[in-house]
Amino acid sequence: MRVIGKPRRRVDGRAKVLGQTQFADDLSFPRMLHCKLLRSRHPHARLRRVDVQRALAAPGVHAVLTGADFPIRYGILPVSEDEEPLCSDKVRMVGDPIAAVIARTEDEAQAALDRIEVDYELLQTIADPFDALANPEPRIHDYGDHGNVHKAVALEFGDVDAALAGADHVFEDCFFYQGNTHLPIEQHAAVALVDPQGKLCLYSSTQTPHYVHRALAKTLDMPPQKIRVVATPNGGGFGGKSDPFNHEIVVAKAAMITGRPVKICLTREEVFYCHRGRHPVLMRLKTAVRNDGSIVAMDLETLLDGGAYGSYGVASTFYTGALQTVTYKVPRYRFRGCRTFTNKPACGPKRGHGTPQPRFGQEIQLDKIAVALGRDPADLRLQQIIEPHSVTANWMRVETVGLRQCIGRVVDGSGWRDKWQKLPPGRGVGLACSAYLTGAGLPIYWNDLPQSGVQLMLDRSGLVTLFCGATEIGQGSDDVLAAIVAEVLGVDPHDIRLVTGDTDLTPVDLGSYSSRVTLMAGNAAIQAAERAKQMLMRAVSAKLGIPPERVTFAGGRVFDAEQPEQGVEFCDAVALAESETGTIGTTGSYRPPVSPAKYKGGGVGPSPAYSYSAAVVEVDVDPATGWIDVRTVWIAHDIGRALNPILARGQVEGSVYMALGEALMEEQRMRRLPERLSNAVVHKFPSMLEYKSPTTLEMPEVVTYFIEDPEANGPFGAKEVGQGPLLPVMPAVANAVFDAVGVRVDEVPITPEKILRALKANDLRSGPERFPAIDWPEPLKVPPPWEGGDGRATNEKPRKSRVAASGVRLGPEVAHK
Amino acid sequence: MMRASHFRYHVARDAADAAAALADGGPNAMLLAGGTDLVPNMKRRQQTPELLISLRCAAGLRAVTLHGETSIGACSTLSDIVRNPDLRERHPALFRAAAQVATPLIRNSATLGGNLCLDTRCNYYNQNYEWRQAIDFCMKAPEGQKESICWVAPSSPRCWAVSSSDTAPALIALGARVTLRSREGERDLALEDLYRDDGIRYLSRRPDEILTSIRIPARAARSTYWKLRRRGSFDFPVLGVAAALRFGKGGVVEEARIVLGAVASHPVVVDASSLIANRLTDDAIETFAEAASRPAKPLDNTDFHMTWRKEMTRAFLRGALRELRGDDPATLGPIAARAAQVTASLW
């Protein structure tokens, strides 16, 4: 292969480093107006009156919108369409938008906000999940399971209680994973206009133009073909730009009302309010093991602080349980998860979506098990790695598994065998592993259509143009598509014109989330390119008088494999094909394989391929201050195949960076003021200065290894690399801290004050003490494959229709051919 | 984006011109030096001056002289300080403090005078206008807003915003004096007297006065500055320990000035008399660190847990004295090692 697997400059790299890439905030149009949002200053209140008359009369103001202008609600998941573009009767968090001013300048819009009068009727604040469980009233939403419980789910795969009762050892721990946010450098921005054809056009820094397109059609009650959504290159997304957002819908409406382009660019504080970041999760994990440490059964409970809206929350809840089984053999498994509404910015998907929290608990607990049973933590894991091409207790089908090699590489590379329990006091190493999906098996809304489509146009000039809905958020999706097509057609990736993330021009791709683009859009691109190749092959074989199978594509030429000098330039090959068959255009599309999980809730977790990671982290911990210095991170990732090793390495290092932030300092902390004095609950520090995220100075040496064992379901064998490598780092840091000073920090962030307090208190532990009593629903009982199950629950009521049962598509497989 | 409020702009030719403009401008006039603190604050509406008097082009405010005593023009940037080898040699505490302020980009603009006059900081105050609306503001309320309570200590009659200057404790330890100039003339005071123990009225500077120069007496003292912060760059101090010691024969301490930063609304000069005429034995250091950390009363209004910050005060006092005693830097712990690495990169 000439392109795939070679380290290359990314196709969009030059424009980015030269500052030529046009991000949403770079866009400017003639006669453009500016929008500012008036946001709630109360966490929970009814809106008695919103008077905008004085704002309308303010200088430069063209329009003022309120909730009354937006009667239709929306939300990323069909089961929780609980958001309003502007709040109409109630606000649920500080920062909820109430009114929008559209004015000639940003200054005038800002000034007019002060002239809007809002009469609030304050409601009791629900500040955290304990508040939510204790106070069913006042309800933040009038839907959900009950009270302020948004969703409570329970699944059981085999008789877990029996396994716990009969096990040699049962380990039980509580863990807490603090919430944190994505902190993309680019704040969200959007510009809407009505184009000369009368079509509404929205440019936005979104990861999911297709879902924004649907949300606009719904909330504006317009035919989708009258709307165009263009995803501008994102200055980082990390999951924080995967929901449709209120400001996008507001500027769209404002452009239609005023007939002029309308732009909004959020402040950093507003980005903290958009949030959709990591859910704070309290966990109780019980694991039953044999004397040798082999897992017999696992019992996991999770309590999620969801914030004020549904967002992806139902999926996030299931994700806190879904992937616990795909790393090690877990014969029996019970998972119960509960998401609560609270008066805070909504949580949602952040890199690793719902899985880093339980992974943190599981990997620390395995370390505790190893220490308790006198086993090396690496060996404990190696002895029970899941079999490749198997089905898990919760009916996830696993394909290739490179975890054994991952552990081997980091153990060898770090000198683990000479370090663990052998380093001087204050220095330690920790090991942890993980798994992640390469694309969610099911889309967000029920449909059995392809999840990604690619169109190719080949021009007689030799130009290849690729059209795909995939969105470049910095991860390199444009480069992956160009590389794949270039490899198949034997041309230079930099010569391919890419048109991506535009609902008018490109076939649907569901978006840049769940690590799906390389696999799904990549497979669609292969299909489209192979179809084009066939057309060229036929034409060139006729011209050269050779059988088609001898026609070879490489180096911008199409030639005879046996006599390479016999051939034509690529552009001439296109011309030959064009004269034979007419204009050259092909399509490709991709649908993931059908999952064997047929129970309700089994729709979250299936994936065409799982990636695996292992990390060893070495730390210094100062016993006098608790100060932690991460010295080195060794990380191995089972990527299937690295399509462009430079980009892949960047994803690993970026994951390690983000993971260390979560492990050591990042916190989406809220501050509840004394209740006797105020009902306020505010973000503690919605700024980039005080929300602590590591700088380059905090970044340790990172040693990256790729395990390349091509995966049949991946394009050229590739699996994901954007999210998985984040997961093992946090528990590896916690385990390293234990190895260094003997303190178990069973929560993130792992801070000096927690370590020092634990050292002084002599209990040598920092973490939650208990898990609250939750009134769990009766679990759906699904026998694992080895207990004679068929992927269905034995106690599930038949569902009338999938959509009625679960609009989120948490149901059984898709019945398509 | 966040937009600053509207203001008029006057470019002062020199200190006299600035002083005149300041006097004429009245209470709504403010001085602009580097702008790295004031301009973001204007965007968040902590300050909404109607007139900004820029000192950027004012002649004579950026000079550094080292004849006998050291004299530094208040508009010298922190990068000027950091890059000056003579200052570095003579006054290590000042160099260490200046080198650890914010980021290189900010130091290129921020001035020494500005860092000395830095507004006090607090998690309840350094937020934008809308956020502060959501908590009904606090005692340190903007002009025209009704005063609220101090959310850090709701029953307290005063504001507990934190003095967050790095250079102030360092310069106080070095015995610095400052000159304040107004239309009426100049006055000279010890730097520690510039500060008041009040989070709102934190300076004794009158609104019509300009801090024009800083003078450090020539003394053969060893000095250092230890800064505690979450990250190796960017962050304001959550604790600063500045120490200047003069040793006599046999390592006996002849003079000691030790100042804590970021533990109160003003830099806190601690009583170092117990060190005088003694050698810095481990015991002497420990006893002193224990006693001297007592005045530090961190509250829950900065980064890090307040209990830990209190503990760190003692650890930092101990570390700073050991460093001045001449201990091997490698034994001073990871925080000192990181600071040494950061500052060494600027040599």
Q: In short, what is this structure?
A:
Helices cover about 25% and strands about 25% of the residues of chain A. Chain A is α+β, with helices and mostly antiparallel strands and about 800 residues long. In chain B, the strands form 3 sheets. Chain B has a 5-stranded antiparallel β-sheet. A 4-stranded antiparallel β-sheet of chain B has the order 9-10-11-12, sandwiched between helices. In chain B, strands 1-3-2 form a 3-stranded parallel β-sheet, covered by helices on one side.
Ends of chain A: how far apart?
32 Å
In total, the number of strands of chain A is 34
Counting helices, strands and paired strands, the structural category of chain B is alpha+beta
Strand content of chain B: 15-25%
What does this 3D model show about the protein?
The complex is a heterodimer of chains A (817) and B (347). Chain A is α+β, with helices and mostly antiparallel strands. In chain A, 26% of the residues lie in helices and 24% in strands. Chain A is built from 20 helices and 34 strands. In chain A, strands 3-5-1-12-9-10-11 form a seven-stranded mixed beta sheet, sandwiched between helices. Chain A has a seven-stranded mixed beta sheet with strand order 32-8-13-14-15-7-34. In chain A, a hairpin with a 6-residue loop joins strand 23 (557-560) and strand 24. In chain A, helix 17 packs across helix 18 (729-741). Mean pLDDT of chain A is 96; it is low at 801-817. Chain B is an alpha+beta fold and 347 residues long. A five-stranded antiparallel beta sheet of chain B has the order 4-5-8-6-7. In chain B, strands 9-10-11-12 form a four-stranded antiparallel beta sheet, with helices on both faces. A three-stranded parallel beta sheet of chain B has the order 1-3-2, covered by helices on one side. In chain B, helix 5 runs antiparallel to helix 9 and helix 10 packs antiparallel against helix 11 (306-325). Chain B has helices at 15-25, 38-44, 78-83, 85-90, 92-99, 104-109, 112-116, 129-134, 167-173, 282-292, 306-325, 334-344, and strands at 8-11, 29-32, 51-54, 64-65, 70-73, 177-182, 185-190, 210-216, 222-228, 239-247, 253-261, 268-270. Among the domains of chain B are: 1-59, Uridine Diphospho-n-acetylenolpyruvylglucosamine Reductase, domain 2 (2-Layer Sandwich), CATH 3.30.43.10; 222-344, Enolase-like, domain 1 (2-Layer Sandwich), CATH 3.30.390.50. In chain B, a hairpin with a 2-residue loop joins strand 6 and strand 7. The chains are: A alpha+beta (817), B alpha+beta (347). At the A-B interface, helix 3 and helix 19 of A face helix 8, helix 11 and helix 12 of B.
